[in-house]
Amino acid sequence: MRDVLKNNLGVVFVAAACFFPAVFWIFQEPVNYRFGNLVETFTSFGQLLGLIGMSMFAVVLFLSSRLKIFDKYFDGLGRAYNLHHMLGGLAFILLLFHPLTLAVRYIPSSIQIASGFIFSFDNTAINYGKIALLGMIALLLITFYVKKVIKYQTWKLSHKLLGAFFFIGGLHMLLIPSDVSVNFSLRWYMILISAVGIGAYFYRTLLYPLSIRRFTYKVDDIRMAGDDVTEITLRPLNKKMKYNPGQFVFISFKNNFIGSESHPFSLISNFEEDSIQVAVKMAGDFTDKLPNLKIGDEAKIEGPFGKFNYENAKSRRQIWIAGGIGITPFLSMARSINWSEYKIDLYYSFRNPTDGVYSEELKDISSRNPNFSFLPWISGKVGQLSVSNISALSGGLQGKSIFICGPLVMMQAIEKGLKDEKIHSEYIHTEEFSM
Hints:
The chain has helices at residues 2-7, 9-26, 31-34, 38-63, 69-73, 77-104, 111-119, 124-146, 152-160, 162-175, 179-182, 184-211, 328-336, 359-368, 379-382, 387-394, 408-420, and strands at 215-226, 229-236, 248-253, 263-266, 276-281, 298-305, 317-323, 343-350, 372-378, 401-405, 428-431. By secondary structure, the protein is of the alpha/beta class.
């Protein structure tokens, strides 16, 4: 239980930061005044949506800062980014319904007044809120619906503008007559959390590129590990980066055709080697260009990140479950581990026989190490891999640490199955490629 709390301290902090304004708000006036009639009820809900939405938006900006401490307090940077995505969508919904709920309170008196509240622009303080919301709508439409059809660099630039609209929304919050203007504690809390969000935004966009430590490598080899998987070997030009098996890095290449934006890649190499390797599935405008890298191209590497590692587990009896390109962190671990100290079953699920990249190497490792069982699972022939399949083949699940990496749908299904089998969360470790 202590380990669960330790690994979730970041989540607890985020939840408190988001909902703390509601505590100040509740004690500002008696609850029966807040919800005494229909108008007051809609007014109260509108105020709460705005306060929590702004706090959540500030937390989203903070989580985008890619701080190394996130690995410790969120049980991995990937989890912090997933929380960032989830809260970003939720903050948008809350802020969208904030003005709509406030407008509804006028409907019993006049639909014209209600529509004017939304569509008129005759109040400067309220206009700041409308501008911020319209900007958020435009940028989040790009994020959720247009991202796949525009270049990554264009999407990333548009995403950075969210911080500017948050600042405009903050002006709206501070200038309108509300509980924030009369409640000293609430006002200063909202100023503080807004300052944290804006500070994180400026750090990420301006200071981060100048302050972060990067390792300089060069492309030493590039080959196709499968029909749609590019393997890149990089050698250090000066200091070697130290990392643990299962971790990932952000890499930007100095290549005019590919571009210089940094992207996350899971490491597949043995951590004791001087060079590092990554394997990347061709699945978009950037990854499709990677085969065009040239030997000698310079690469800047930031990291390492993540806690997805066999040593960060309660048991040395482990089950590893990979789906598709999710095999990459397990490959690094299989190449690095001391097999005399661990007993591990690796399930590798892929659709067609030709999709199982690195299967031959993993079979070879298994043949030389009795404590390592490699179990390829061709889903196109035998159906989806399930927890019941894994339990039957591995002789049960209890007392074993379980690592999962792969497509989100597969991971969610496996996690649900494990919870149905009463496997405690302390024994479940996940890594997602959704940053």
